[in-house]
Sequence to fold (424 residues):
Amino acid sequence: MLLAACGGSSSSSESSAAPAGSAPASAAAASGEPITIGAAIAQSGPAGIADHKDCWNGAQLAVDQVNAAGGVNGRPLALDVTDIDILSPEGITAGFQKLTGDKVSALLSPFVIIPPPALDAAAAYGAPYMSGDTNIDAQKMRESDPAKYGNYFTDPAETYYGAGLPVFLTQLADSGKWTPKNTKVDIVRGDTAYNKNIADATIAAIEASGGKWTLGEVIDITAGTKDWAPVISKLKASDAGVIMVDHWIGAELASFSQQFAADPVKDALVYLQYGPSQPEYLQIAGPAAEGYVWGTVIGTGNTSEEDKAFRAAYQAAYNVDDTTMGFVYPAWCYDMVNVLANAWKNVDPADFKAVNEFIAANPTNGVTGFLDFSKGATPVYPDQVADAAAGVTHYFYQVQGGKHTTIAPAGDNEADFVAQPWMQ
Fold:
């Protein structure tokens, strides 16, 4: 029933390499008492459904692979999935308390919109909490009391979307693949704290660029925007060389993409923050998606053998392809299950303190990159660390030929940036 709900099949483990630290695929089938991961997955709320389903699918694929390879010291893994309202403190607390009441060995969630209730519920329980919150405020909360929140392990903060954009723009301009018509950057800013943090970091990076980039208009929007004409009118009046749409909902970014492509700001480079990673973006935007650039700090590459093996296994398990799979949370939640499995191979799953200490002290390699949770949040390349082998990768993609194609960082890209359709 779980696999059916995820849209997958248990045959997925046959088509990919076993995860690091697992037994060979020919190992005896896992038996005995399962080690259960409690997954807080939004299934019925108004936001986050696509990302949460991606996480569920990625986690289930990892569970299937670990179990097919003999489990963890002979014990199978299992998911205990509960629906969660990620938009209210009460809903978040209820979801996490339901899982802790089930006596799970770990907690997993792609993200919640209001992190403190989740951190507090997880801290009171003590088991490792593997998250993809991408939230600087949650990270500061952990840093303020590491003794209490030391079981919270997460991805890089959203601020790197802002700090990393001017770096990407400079590298792209220096490469000769793009010549900006002016230095001005307009920001279309969403109404969540997440989007405001990204905008603030972008503005700070622009101000620190020494005049390489300058701030143009900051245009505020609200979630649920359907008519983008007023926004596009302001963008045309500003006529900036770069437009950043700082919004995370794929369907709404698809609507923007269609309306902007029909009436564009000529020669402006348009960057959409994160949302195109959700499968619905390409499905809704259709041909109008061509050329748009977007990024993520926990993406799925397509150059290494590990990247390709993961894509092949995931696509076979869930009957998707490069145009219909998610590019963020499948890989991240797959990695989080394997981090847990690696820890449990070495310490008793019931000893939460020992498991948390092991995860913090023992970095691992995953599909998203090098996972070092010594400080709670894994670092990101190239924004925090200069070596790609020392952090997860901040990928930039461009829709080329109807597919998401990695264009940065250099050396891990599938193709170079190409002029967007509205550019000369």
